[in-house]
Design goal:
- The protein is mostly helical.
- It has a single domain, classed as Arp2/3 complex 21 kDa subunit ARPC3 (Orthogonal Bundle), CATH 1.10.1760.20.
- It is built from eleven helices and four strands, in the order ααββαααααααββαα.
- Strand 3 and strand 4 form a beta hairpin.
Length: 336
């Protein structure tokens, strides 16, 4: 679901960036004002959860791969506003450091995964929780919400892909960017998510929520001070499990590079050309592309990349918490 650069035209990228900007601004304000200094590190833990879950690729129908996101999980644990910030942070590091998702398409990816999933998923979860007041009912509602959230996000991505042949063509009438129309992109994206990725998302969400509810109930949205040791232990377990993502061979649908899209076979036919906008478009040289560290075997490089990403999130939000503490102390001194 990570849309690479040059699959969406510049106009679409600008529109999607503008669409998600209000969510970023409001989320940042909400988090800054309402989240206590003690709970700010949970944003880093949340970003780490989402980052690691997205590394666990699974094979889906059609010979491609997909992954869970953890958006509804973070919305329930941290609140949808904080989840938006955490997932956006995870997507930013994936794009800048690991080349997973585009720089120009960052707004579109955040709209789909950091806005649609947590807010829609949390909305469905709240409806279910308020009507079925039991632990079992809560888990069922959580599974339905997370399944619905990721599938709505997949539909949004499919529409963004499928609109490109309509809005951006060259003089010869060939698509400049994503070459697949809505009749191809929608089933190609939604069927694998309905059949596999949504189920994986629901399973991850319920399993991790159940663990957190038992080991660190204070981590749940508007909870008491959280016990972070069990959360860090879960992160370590996910880091160690991350190489499982290498078992799913092939690329996710719509994430092919310019060198391979020409020969991709869909509906029994290969595309036969490279869209000009994709061939001559913007290409960002990520320092650790595809989570592969030079000098390390695939499994170890993948796990070390997972560890590096986690370290970035944890350290960044620890520092942010300390900065907020410093500002609060300065304000108290100024008031005195």
């Amino acid at each position: 679901m990570h849309i690479p650069d040059n699959y969406l035209g510049p106009a679409t990228c600008a529109i999607m960036g503008a669409a998600v900007l209000p969510a970023w601004v409001l989320s940042a304000r909400k988090v800054t004002r309402e989240l206590s200094r003690e709970r700010i590190p949970l944003l880093g833990i949340g970003a780490a959860f989402s980052f690691l879950i997205m590394m666990l690729n699974v094979p889906v129908p059609g010979g491609t791969t997909a992954h869970a996101v953890g958006g509804t999980l973070l919305a329930v644990l941290l609140g949808p506003w904080a989840a938006c910030i955490s997932i956006s942070t995870a997507l930013l590091i994936q794009a800048l450091v690991f080349g997973d998702g585009g720089i120009l398409s960052f707004g579109a990816n955040c709209f789909n995964m950091a806005f649609v999933i947590p807010f829609f998923g949390y909305f469905i979860y709240k409806i279910a929780k308020d009507r079925v007041r039991s632990r079992r009912g809560e888990y069922i509602g959580l599974a339905i919400a997370s399944y619905a959230g990721i599938n709505l996000a997949a539909l949004c991505a499919a529409i963004e892909f499928g609109l490109q042949p309509l809005v951006a063509r060259d003089a010869a009438g060939l698509p400049l960017y994503s070459p697949y129309p809505l009749s191809v992109s929608i089933p190609a994206m939604t069927i694998p998510h309905l059949a596999v990725a949504g189920v994986v998302e629901a399973a991850f969400t319920v399993a991790i929520f159940a663990f957190v509810a038992k080991a660190s109930p204070g981590a749940i949205y508007i909870g008491s001070p959280a016990r972070t040791k069990p959360l860090y232990a879960l992160i370590v377990a996910l880091v160690l499990a991350s190489p499982i993502g290498l078992l799913a061979a092939g690329s996710a649908w719509g994430e092919w590079g310019p060198g391979e899209i020409k020969s991709v076979v869909i509906g029994g036919k290969s595309l036969g050309f490279v869209p000009a906008g994709m061939d001559r478009g913007f290409h960002f040289p990520a320092p650790i592309p595809d989570y592969g560290l030079k000098g390390f075997p695939g499994i170890f490089g993948y796990a070390l990349s997972a560890l590096l990403g986690v370290a970035i999130f944890i350290i960044a939000y620890k520092l942010f918490g300390l900065l907020k503490k410093g500002k609060k102390e300065d304000a108290v001194k100024a008031g005195a």
